[in-house]
Amino acid sequence: MHTTNTEKRSGEMFINSQHGLRDGFTPKKILAATKQMGETLFLVEYFDTDELDLAPKQEVFDRAPLIVLQFFEKYIPASVNPA
């Protein structure tokens, strides 16, 4: 879902396409991941704004690698071979 609407409505968060990172917001948390036209995008929540952002995986990793690692640790189980 893409929208460029910046008008705030009560109880709603807006998803903007790649505006948060470019506007200098600091990523707070990755909420989800999706793939569009072969590119992995993260749905990112930022500090100091109610807006959500679909941002390319590499851009998020470059700005906040720990956030990306935390997302993968939470949603992708590690393979453990029993000894």
TrEMBL record:
It holds the Pfam family Chromo_shadow. Residues 27-74 form the Chromo shadow domain. Keywords: Nucleus. GO terms for cellular component: nucleus. It is found in: Nucleus. It comes from the Eukaryota. This is Chromo shadow domain-containing protein. It comes from Steinernema carpocapsae (Entomopathogenic nematode).
